[in-house]
Amino acid sequence: MADFGHIAIVAAFVIAAYAAIAAPLGVQLRAPELKASAYNGVLGVAVLMTVASGTLLLAFMTNDFSIKYVAEHSSREMPNSLVAAAFYGGQAGSLLYWGWTLSLFSALVAYQQRRADSTMMAYVHMTLMAVMAFFGLILGFVASPFEKMAVVPSNGLGLNPLLYDLGMLYHPPMLLAGYMSWTIPFAFAVAALAAGRLDAGWIRTTRRYALVAWAILGIGNMLGGWWAYRVLGWGGYWGWDPVENSAIMPWLIGTAFIHSVMIQERRGMLKVWNMALVLVTFYLAIFGTFVVRSGVITSVHSFAQSSIGPFFLAFLSLVVASTLTLLFVCLPRLRSENQLDSMLSREASFLMNNLLFLGLVFAIFWGTIFPLVSEAVQGTKITVGPPFFNQVAGPIMIVLIALMGVGPLMPWRKGRAESLIRLFAPPVLFAVLAAIGVGLFKGFDQPKALASFGACAFVAATIATELSKGTLARRQATGETVLGALGNLISRNNRRYGGYVVHLGIVMIAVAVTASSAYQLEQSTRLQPGASMAIGEYRLTFNGLRERSEPGVRIVEAQLAVEADRELVGTLITDKRFYRGFERQPSTSVGIRTSPADDLYVVLAGWEADGSASFMVFVNPLVIWIWLGGIVAAAGTLVAMWPQPRPGLVQVGASTRGLAVGRA
Hints:
Radius of gyration: 27 Å
Strand content: 5-15%
Number of helices: 19
Helix content: 55-70%
């Protein structure tokens, strides 16, 4: 089985390298058979990588501990769901998953675009297969998931206890697929430069692929926060860890790209900027993969120091050097067709949006790599903690949220100050009143939080205004019901109104993040059985400890009765789990009681021989709205990506004078 999987990977590497050479050679030699051969190579690589991945998965499911990777990341006691997830639970398997999903996406894109410009697609195939060849090289010759054991053990070590959770089934594959999926827009950008197709055509072709990549990576980040919140036991969901930072940076630059391409499509501007954004997004995706796989930066998420780090660094350097050189050569043909006419325009607001995203990413990037810089300069690693990121990123994010409400309402080219004042006065007034209302309720000692709430209220008001105006206009024109008019408005203008739904989801997340950060309650306590503590509106009574066992794990759990407003509302159970082979690394199961208003979050910190136990208790306001906001944003992305219906004739109104017919 090990030999079979290894041969499949090496064969995929050889064919990917061949296709990466044959595709551009077919263009240069005007040989369609070479381009067709490269296309077939893309499909063949997908088949071979699927065979390799299926072989490794089968090895896990059959407990084939003759394969070192299986022995290190699985055991007979693990449930089947986690055994399957162990496929990507280690370094080599996660790289195989990265390469496998890339091969599938590449084959899908090649098939979907098989009738497109053959020259353009040849360079797309070249880029995709060049990246695929790099991963094939690593998997085949540097970090093989099919390395054999000299002595076959009777049982494996199993996964790290922190990975024994439902989140293991969702977060890692989504995050890895999110990194990988930005290879598709990157390939089209490189193809546009290489083929000289520098109009907005490559943007239109790439748009849905970019939205898919943006959505997958965004969901991966959201699931990571949800997982960390449930298992790490520190009361939060985002700690500005280097791996978290590496995952959010390409998503932020990708967000800037998705916004700025609208300017190129509409006005023929920002061609160089858009090209640079999609290139940088891919650079950061590879950088994120490098950080977590190399162990070069200390993180609770990353793997140990590894031999693949220099390979990733060399690959990233080669990609940056080659693509920036190509961009520089093409600069004369990337001139804008129009200029910025006014600062009071949608173009200006989107450009400001982009600059802020870039500044935010630079601050995060600098804080992430600063330990490496300090070690190189001073010989000592100086870690940059959450206070730096909160202080720098917080104000930028507040302005970015406000711009979500400004941009969509601004006119293209140039707006009149008087009309803009009338347009923005109501949402601004609503924002001020909302900030004052929160201040009266919670106090005015958190000015950044109040500013954030005000910005969110401003965006919500602009979204409500746009939706209500559009719905009313369509209802008057068609005679539809309110819900019917709203549904048809969104479906027939899905790109615009899908974007509004995404913005609404982001606002929900921002409100929840602000509330849970600024108004979190925290208390550490030690309780004897029968003793109680109070925090916020809650009162917790410790009912004692209980020890139990499950296959391969010893569990010590504490049960607490929960009262809210002096009424018993239920019980919470929090525990420590000691897995076989990892007794010195117990995992934590957090007790969480969720309501629309807040989360009561309880962590068992330790216990004594007399039966007493120590707890960390948090009250985190509005946390559930983070996850609900993520669902709304994902739904909005799906709406924005949905193909628009073909125009047709519909009845728009009937009167005593006759029938009015218009085009939908």
